[in-house]
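[Discussion] Sanity-checking designs against the backbone

I'm trying to build intuition for which residues belong where. Below is a C-alpha cell string of 433 positions. I'd appreciate it if someone posts a full sequence so I can compare it with mine line by line.
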C-alpha cells in the first residue's frame, strides 16, 4: 500500500473508531503506531511512541495548562462563582431579561478564571436556573442561557482549548490568549442582545425585577475584585511583556488560592480541587500525546502536504474554501466533542489554511468559536447534555429549543470574525515583548 493511500485509510479508521466510542487518545495513538509500524517497522513505531510523550510535554511553556485548570477548580470549590453571579444580578437584574443577562455576565466572569465550558454550565445550572424559575422566567430560556453562557469559557482567556491549539500547531500561547479576549467580549454583547430581543418580543418569558439602590450595587462590586485581579494580572502581564503566560498563570493561581483560604475553603475542597486539576490535566495530555503520534504518522505519508497543495491549487477564492471549512466544522460539531474535533482535523486542515494565507492566530480563535457552536447544537451539544444531566426534570429538547435563538447570534459573531479579522489580531499584534 502506497503512503498516501495508507494515510487516507488511517484517517478513515480513526473516524470509525471515534464514532464507535473509542477515546480520541487511544484511537489516535493506535492508528498512528499501527501506521508507523506498517511504513517503518517496529523499531521506528515504538521508538517514536516512547519519545513523543516526553518531547511534547517536557516544556516550561506547557506548564501554563495545569495552572489555568487549577485556577478554575479552585475558584469553583471556593465559591467565588456565586459572588460574581450575585453582583451581576444586582447590577443588571432590573433590565429586560435581567437575570438571564446576569447569568451571561457571571458566566463570562467564571470563564475569566476557568476555561472549562462544562464546569461553567454545571455550576450555573445549579446557581442561576432555580432563581430564574423562582422569578417566573421561562424554563427553556433559563436553560438555553446557561448552556450558551458556558461556551464563553472556551474563548475568554485563560482558555484551555486555546492553549491546546497553541501546543498542537506550535504557536505563541500568549498571543492566542490575548486574541481570544475581544471575540469573547463580542460574544457576551451578542448574547445579551439576543436575550433583549427575545424578551422584548415576548415579555412574559422574563418578568422584570425590583429596582436596586446604588449603595447595594457598589457594595456588590466587592464580590468580584478577585476575578478582576486575576484577569488583569494574566492579560495585563502578558500584554505588557512583564510576565510569560506561565508566570502570569502562576500568579493568578496564587491569588485564587489566597482568596480560597480567606473564604476558609476546607481541606477536603482543596483536595478535591487539586485532584480534579490532576485528572483533567492528565486526560488532556493523553489526548495530545496520542494525536502527536498520529500526526507523525501522517507526516510520513505526505498526505497533509498533498491536501495543502490540492486546496491551494483550487481555482476559487480562498474565502470560498474557508466557508467550506466553517460548514464542515459546524456539521462535525453536531456529532463530535470540541477537543476530539480539533485534534482530528488540525493535522490536515491547518496546513491548508495557512497555505491559503490566513493568519494562524486568527484561525485558532475562529476554530474555538466554531467549537463553541458545536457545544450547543443537537444532537451532541455537550453543554446542553450537562444542563439536562444536572437537572433531569428539564427535557433535553427544551434545552435545545432554549439555545435556538442564540444560534442566530453565533452566525453574527462568526461573520464579524471573518469580515473583520483585526478584532482578533489587534491585541496580539500590539503586545509588548
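Best answer:
Here's mine. Compare freely.
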Amino acid at each position: 500500500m502506497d503512503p498516501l493511500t495508507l494515510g487516507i485509510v488511517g484517517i478513515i479508521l480513526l473516524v470509525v473508531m471515534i464514532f464507535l466510542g473509542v477515546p480520541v487518545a487511544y484511537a489516535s495513538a493506535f492508528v498512528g503506531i499501527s501506521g508507523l509500524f506498517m511504513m517503518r517497522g517496529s523499531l521506528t513505531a515504538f521508538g517514536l511512541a516512547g519519545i513523543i510523550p516526553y518531547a511534547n510535554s517536557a516544556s516550561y511553556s506547557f506548564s501554563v495548562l495545569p495552572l489555568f485548570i487549577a485556577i478554575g477548580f479552585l475558584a469553583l470549590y471556593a465559591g467565588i462563582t456565586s459572588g460574581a453571579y450575585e453582583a451581576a444580578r444586582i447590577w443588571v437584574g432590573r433590565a429586560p431579561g435581567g437575570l438571564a443577562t446576569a447569568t451571561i455576565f457571571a458566566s463570562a466572569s467564571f470563564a475569566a478564571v476557568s476555561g472549562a465550558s462544562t464546569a461553567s454550565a454545571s455550576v450555573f445550572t445549579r446557581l442561576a436556573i432555580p432563581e430564574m424559575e423562582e422569578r417566573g422566567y421561562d424554563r427553556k430560556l433559563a436553560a438555553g442561557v446557561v448552556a450558551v453562557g458556558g461556551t464563553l469559557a472556551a474563548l475568554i482567556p485563560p482558555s484551555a482549548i486555546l492553549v491546546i491549539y497553541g501546543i498542537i500547531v506550535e504557536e505563541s500561547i500568549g498571543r492566542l490568549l490575548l486574541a481570544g479576549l475581544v471575540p469573547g467580549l463580542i460574544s457576551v454583547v451578542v448574547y445579551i442582545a439576543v436575550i433583549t430581543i427575545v424578551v422584548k418580543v415576548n415579555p412574559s418569558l422574563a418578568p422584570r425585577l425590583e429596582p436596586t439602590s446604588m449603595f447595594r450595587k457598589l457594595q456588590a462590586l466587592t464580590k468580584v475584585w478577585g476575578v478582576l485581579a486575576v484577569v488583569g494580572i494574566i492579560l495585563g502581564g502578558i500584554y505588557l511583556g512583564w510576565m510569560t503566560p506561565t508566570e502570569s498563570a502562576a500568579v493568578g493561581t496564587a491569588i485564587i488560592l489566597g482568596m480560597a483560604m480567606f473564604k476558609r475553603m476546607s481541606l477536603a475542597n482543596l483536595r478535591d480541587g487539586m485532584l480534579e486539576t490532576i485528572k483533567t490535566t492528565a486526560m488532556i495530555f493523553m489526548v495530545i500525546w496520542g494525536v502527536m503520534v498520529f500526526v507523525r504518522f501522517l507526516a510520513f505519508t505526505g498526505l497533509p502536504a498533498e491536501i495543502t497543495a490540492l486546496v491551494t491549487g483550487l481555482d476559487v477564492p480562498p474565502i470560498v474554501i474557508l466557508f467550506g471549512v466553517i460548514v464542515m466544522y459546524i456539521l462535525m460539531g453536531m456529532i463530535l466533542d470540541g477537543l476530539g474535533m480539533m485534534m482530528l482535523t488540525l493535522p490536515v486542515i491547518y496546513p491548508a489554511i495557512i497555505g491559503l494565507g490566513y493568519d494562524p492566530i486568527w484561525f485558532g480563535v475562529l476554530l474555538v468559536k466554531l467549537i463553541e457552536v458545536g457545544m450547543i447544537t443537537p444532537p451532541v451539544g455537550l453543554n446542553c447534555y450537562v444542563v439536562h444531566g444536572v437537572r433531569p426534570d428539564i427535557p433535553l429538547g427544551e434545552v435545545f429549543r432554549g439555545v435556538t435563538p442564540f444560534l442566530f447570534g453565533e452566525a453574527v459573531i462568526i461573520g464579524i470574525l471573518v469580515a473583520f479579522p483585526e478584532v482578533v489580531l489587534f491585541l496580539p499584534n500590539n503586545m509588548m515583548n
